[in-house]
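Subject: complex prediction, re-run

Hi both,

The earlier run crashed halfway through, so I resubmitted it with identical inputs.
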Amino acid sequence: DSGVTQTPKHLITATGQRVTLRCSPRSGDLSVYWYQQSLDQGLQFLIHYYNGEERAKGNILERFSAQQFPDLHSELNLSSLELGDSALYFCASSRAPPGHGSDEQFFGPGTRLTVL
Amino acid sequence: DAKTTQPNSMESNEEEPVHLPCNHSTISGTDYIHWYRQLPSQGPEYVIHGLTSNVNNRMASLAIAEDRKSSTLILHRATLRDAAVYYCILRDPDDDKIIFGKGTRLHILP
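This time it finished cleanly. Structure:
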């Protein structure tokens, strides 16, 4: 158990819908990272938040957005869902502030999203 | 694009050492080398990281070439539970993006 929790574990929805994925980092970790893992694309970095502020964006679509709240939990919002958005979504947390290349990331168990 | 190159898959016998290679010829002086692994149906898990010197921890050893353009993750005595996809990643302290490549799928034969 990494200490990172993600809810829900599974989500099945229809095209065009909007969903929210939730992540609670390990106690004391200020950084939250979101990743998407699909069969054909592998593990793709989406976005990084540190202490409520966005720090870096990766391959995140405009239909997707995220935020980190004062209690440090984070939500990933996916809207106008398409079949191709079906994937595993992981969040990870770490303790070190940005600018540290040596921090260890702890990954949650993931949310499996299926878009029908 | 991933900044590292790894073999797609490797096979090893149980209870034997495993050497997983990674090429990172464009590494910069400040990039850290990280290894993660992903067991079936789980999220990735940190294994080890290093900058210039070889590193050891309870899970594995990391051997870094003198020119830092390649590294090798060493599992000293593989078990069936080590069957996973192993990712070699470069972390730039000035860039918060993290790029995972395809990784190496390690098969352990009993």
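The first strand of chain A starts at residue 5 and ends at 7.

- K.
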